[in-house]
Specification:
Elements (H helix, E strand, L loop, with lengths): L20 H4 L8 E4 L2 E4 L6 H17 L6 E4 L3 E3 L11 E2 L3 E4 L5 E2 L2 E2 L5 E5 L5 H15 L3 E6 L4 E8 L2 E4 L3 E2 L3 E3 L7 E3 H4 L5
Parallel strand pairs: 4-8, 9-10
Antiparallel strand pairs: 1-2, 3-6, 4-5, 6-9, 7-8, 10-11, 11-12, 11-13, 14-15
């Protein structure tokens, strides 16, 4: 459903409609949304303190690790247009909590126009089903090589890596463990440090 006018009120959208990235760019309201296969998904309200603490810890760790790489680290809000659509049309736009992109040709002024190499999603109350099911399928289909799911309240991390088009999961990482990235083996994150400032 395409329109040329800016939309400033979420209530003016047809939640059953199908939208493209061009529609998405015209939305100017306070609610944060993602576009998945052309359908609107309303995101959780502003992340809580546990979510923010974990995101800060990961961002600092990833930024330091990739400082001397050509790979770039981005964190939300940052639009990622996944290649799950008709040719020439962007119908899936997500905002991962953190992503790593090593191919500079995938970047433009609006964000990322293809699959990142690695994505991290931090669960928040109310969005766990979305992250655990919908985004798992999307990221697998898009060919994202590695996907981390972080649960800050229960203090565990799941790491999946793509093998022959399917995600293969490592054992859950819990307090006392050290997460070793599959795609970048020298990147290691101690779980205790990750959750050090959470309650």
């Amino acid at each position: 459903m395409e329109t040329n006018e800016p939309i400033t009120d979420y209530a003016h959208l047809d939640i059953n409609g199908t939208y493209s990235y061009m529609d998405y760019l015209r939305w100017h309201f306070k609610e944060r949304v993602e576009l998945i296969r052309g359908k609107i998904f309303k995101m959780s309200p502003a992340p809580n303190t546990n979510h923010q603490s974990v995101l800060l810890s990961l961002s600092m760790k990833f930024a330091a690790y990739f400082e001397n790489y050509t790979c770039k680290v981005f964190f939300a809000p940052f639009d990622v247009r996944l290649p799950i659509s008709k040719p020439g049309k962007d119908y899936t736009v997500v905002q991962p909590d953190l992503c790593v992109i090593c191919d500079a040709s995938k970047l433009d002024q609006q964000g990322c126009k293809d699959a990142p190499d690695l994505v991290v999603e931090i669960l928040s109350p109310g969005n766990s089903r979305h992250e655990m099911h919908t985004k798992f399928q999307l990221y697998q289909e898009a060919g994202i090589q590695e996907y981390w799911i972080v649960e800050p309240d229960k203090k565990w991390v799941l790491v999946y890596h793509l093998h022959e088009g399917q995600y293969v999961g490592l054992r859950p990482f819990i307090e006392g463990d050290v997460i070793q990235c599959v795609l970048f083996p020298d990147l290691k994150v101690a779980v205790n440090e990750l959750f050090r400032n959470t309650t």
